[in-house]
Automatic annotation (TrEMBL):
Responsible for the release of ribosomes from messenger RNA at the termination of protein biosynthesis. May increase the efficiency of translation by recycling ribosomes from one round of translation to another. HAMAP family: RRF. Residues 21-183 form the Ribosome recycling factor domain. This is Ribosome-recycling factor. One of its GO terms (cellular component) is cytoplasm. Pfam families: RRF. The keyword Nuclease does not apply. The keyword Protein biosynthesis applies. Belongs to the RRF family. GO terms for biological process: translational termination. It comes from Loigolactobacillus backii. Its main location: cytoplasm. It comes from the Bacteria.
Amino acid sequence: MASDPALVEAQKKMKNAEEALQRELGTIRAGRANAGILSRVMVDYYGVPTPLNQVATITIPEARVLMVTPYDKSSLKDIEHAILVSDLGISPANDGTAIRLVIPQLTQERRAELAKDVKKQAENSKIVVRNARRDAMEDLRKREKANELTEDDLHGLEDQAQKLTNESTKRVDQIAADKEKEIISD
């Protein structure tokens, strides 16, 4: 754990970038049921845009099926409409009490596209990580110029910042590799 305030802040930004990537990749449909793909669906619930997971239970009864069961049965049509207008590309099947979403099998071409998207998002996360390192380094250099740090302290803290960056980049790569493997090996 970093002890210098600049490094603590950089580490926090890096961790946020990793978590954001994890959330973002969770919304990618990989050919199997994953409740994360519904995380962005907003339902017009009594005139208020509400996240789907707050108005319904989302379960996975089978490998390729998501089942959305509303807490309030009168909101079933609103939920169905919200799923239809979302960019999921999955048609909901309403049976009167719940909505079933059957996740279609991915084509090889689509898998390649998704893997490319994963790499792009991972690269964007790495940029955020490197920017956090740059900000920390600038802060450290300013403090060294203001005689708040010695030159030796500066070099030691810069090394720590680089280690934090390397670790975070490695975690981003691992998150992306796991998602790519999930997409390709369905």
